[in-house]
Amino acid sequence: MHVVAAPDKFRGTATAVAVAEAIGAAARTTGATVDLVPVADGGEGTLAALGGPNRTATVTGPLGDPVVAPWRRSGDEAVLEMALASGLDLVGGAEGNDAMAASTSGTGELILAALDAGCRRVVLGVGGSASTDGGLGAVRALEPVARLRGVELTVACDVRTTFVDAATTFAGQKGATPAQVELLRRRLERLAQVYEEAYGLDVRALPGSGAAGGLAGGLAAVGARLVPGFDLVAEELDLAARMESADLVVTGEGFLDDQSFAGKAVGGVVELASSLGRPVLVVAGEVLEGVVVPPGVTAVSLVERFGRDRAVHDTVACIREVVTGHLARG
Fold first, then answer.
1. Mean pLDDT (whole number) for 48-53
2. What is the domain range of residue 86?
3. Is the full-model pTM beyond 0.85?
4. Residue 240: inside a domain
5. 289 vs 306: which has the higher pLDDT
6. Are residue 91 and residue 180 in the same domain, yes or no?
7. Average pLDDT for residues 54-82, to the nearest whole number?
8. Which spans in the chain are helix H?
9. How many C-beta atoms surround the C-beta of residue 25 within 10 A?
10. What is the mean pLDDT of the chain?
């Protein structure tokens, strides 16, 4: 039996790396071999999935305080994660955020750090942002944008949301009041016009341009290429080839809902495995009511199996127990 462990993070309880290691430990106890391939969808965890950091840069955090942001350099390629420079967690979540003032300046500064280090290919994972500034802070930090000439800037998006819709879809999760959401929506509408006038690209209908509060759209205006985050991660990790020898693929995330199978990492793993005819075990912190699980997929809810308290506070041990039992039953 050969298992490919390709989980996403369990937000707030376990990283994708920790979950993959738990799956691996369980597989080995049953005599199976295992390939650990923690994945991400372009949001938090993308840097870890693509090798982890080996550099740091001090940049401006979302509310103006200095932040030490880890990033990765490999030859002339850089892998950056927007959440580590401009993320909501850096300000203590929605309660500690100023949704109107939060900025992506630090992400622009992080891109500059990579360019100053000689990198000509930059992969930026976006997701988990504190701001809804449409990427204005990052674009201003990058000016003059002519310095991006000859640079391949790829933005890995974890959503398909368009630019102006970023306010109504996500700003409330970042602490914005309903009145502020409307102000932010109008600000994005005006900013889209500014970008079109300055750079010749209308970002309003561009899929994924609303990722990270419109950061993706702002960077697209100055030449970035927007791609689905999971697809980029899967390609970088050669995931399809690694699945070909699998007898079982195990993936997972904190909450399994309808969005999980619509562009998120777990859905991407399931789709890829299914295309190769490989069975899949999905271990989730919680499987929300009404979720339709695709054929050939077994989904297990840790909350249902072990109760909420243990599922939250002993997540890794619960994952090991589920995977061990599944393999033992064949």
1. 93
2. 46-230
3. yes
4. no
5. 306
6. yes
7. 97
8. 16-29, 46-49, 83-86, 105-116, 136-142, 165-170, 178-199, 211-221, 229-237, 239-243, 265-275, 302-306, 308-313, 315-328
9. 16
10. 95
